[in-house]
Amino acid sequence: MTTSSGSTGRLRLKLCPSLSATPRIVLRRPDGTVAEFLDMVQTQLRSDVSLACFVDGFALPRSELICHVLRDDEVLLVKEAEETGPRLKRQRVAPFGLTGCPSSVPCIDWADGGLLTALSACGAVFVRDDSLPDPDFVSWQGLWQQALEDHRSFRRRPAVLNRQLRFSKGEDLLRTRVGEAKAHTPDIRYNFGVGVDVMSRDWDELSWIRDGFDSVLQMLMAMMKSELASATDAEEPENTLGSKVLLDCESWAGSRLRHSVYPPNGSCTEHTDYGVVTLQQSTAPGLEAYVAGSWQSLVPPPGHAVLFAGDMLEILTNGKVPALVHRVTPGGSRQSHIIFLQPDRNTIVQPLRPFLRHDGTDHMPVKYGEWHKRKTSLAFQKP
């Protein structure tokens, strides 16, 4: 096997037995098609034998770009074409919304599993939302209009008086990634916010907000419990998210709901989210992701919502799942219903043991509350 490094990642190449006696070859990870890659292999082997590429038993179509069909952690097997037998084509998931993205956005179902693998492609997936509670965008729109047009009545609502439901205009995000300065565009949006700490209180006529939040949160917790449990062992250090993953809601005490209303030309500047995963349902396009060096529109197919990775999942998986850099671009009016799955502030988040490399490149542990405070200070301080 040959392993080489290139500007676009690592390539792991394995030659079939009939070719394994050939001299060791070293190749850059190619940017071109499978056919062009095989031409490179043949040149180095100094052979006229017709070759084919396989990954996980599937033949790669010669016309496909390598970056579309091969991930960094996969082994590329090269065989003589006559040895391949029936050619099974490795299917790509259609890139709903991420046109031109080297890694398509997978569509998954809540009960199917495989979330971490799906997220490793580009940090985002589309999940079927037919099992999710209706965000009730109509009621949220009415609540927003009351907050603007009859603020006194809005303030008299018990949930608002008791700070169970918070309302604000905009979040002026300046910088939200450590060590990076970026062009600043002031946000224009209105935000309703709810935290887990007020879920047990009486919400009176706004109980639909609490109930919807609780239903989605339970689904997200169950999904992450199932996903992380398979990558967690009994030796995870105490008070880490890995050791708490099988516990109840207290492990996710930092979780929150945010419902944002974007007026025409409303926006949200680029950032990654603080927590583990974010689930978003929206009334209109506007969400963009920074993938493979460019901004791509992230539009789910009908019947799906967007779920993407935050900083904590990137740390838990030691970088295998990237935190999604995203933004909301100006356009028409829209609403976004967003659930953030986040640990409590005293939980230590560090790479789970199966993801450790022990080569000096592992992510460092962080206390979630300190991480959140650090990123908040970056976001709201002046440049």
What layout of secondary structure does this protein have?
Elements: E1 2-6, E2 9-15, H1 34-45, E3 51-55, E4 58-59, H2 66-69, E5 75-80, E6 107-108, H3 115-119, E7 124-128, H4 137-149, H5 151-155, H6 158-161, E8 166-169, E9 190-195, H7 207-229, H8 241-244, E10 256-262, E11 268-271, E12 277-282, E13 287-291, E14 294-297, E15 304-309, H9 311-316, E16 326-328, E17 334-341, E18 348-349, E19 366-367, H10 368-380
Parallel strand pairs: 2-5, 6-7
Antiparallel strand pairs: 1-2, 3-4, 3-5, 7-15, 8-9, 9-10, 10-17, 11-16, 12-15, 12-17, 13-14, 13-16, 18-19
What does this structure look like?
By secondary structure, this protein is an alpha+beta fold. It folds into 2 domains: 2-83, Ubiquitin-like (UB roll), CATH 3.10.20; 107-380, Jelly Rolls (Sandwich), CATH 2.60.120.330. The chain is 23% helix and 23% strand. It has helices at 34-45, 66-69, 115-119, 137-149, 151-155, 158-161, 207-229, 241-244, 311-316, 368-380; strands spanning 2-6, 9-15, 51-55, 58-59, 75-80, 107-108, 124-128, 166-169, 190-195, 256-262, 268-271, 277-282, 287-291, 294-297, 304-309, 326-328, 334-341, 348-349, 366-367. The strands form 4 sheets. It has an 8-stranded mixed β-sheet with strand order 6-7-15-12-17-10-9-8. A hairpin with a 2-residue loop joins β13 and β14 (294-297). The longest helix is centred in the middle third of the chain and has 23 residues, at 207-229. It starts with a strand and ends with a helix. Residues 1-9, 83-97 and 99-103 have low confidence and may be disordered.
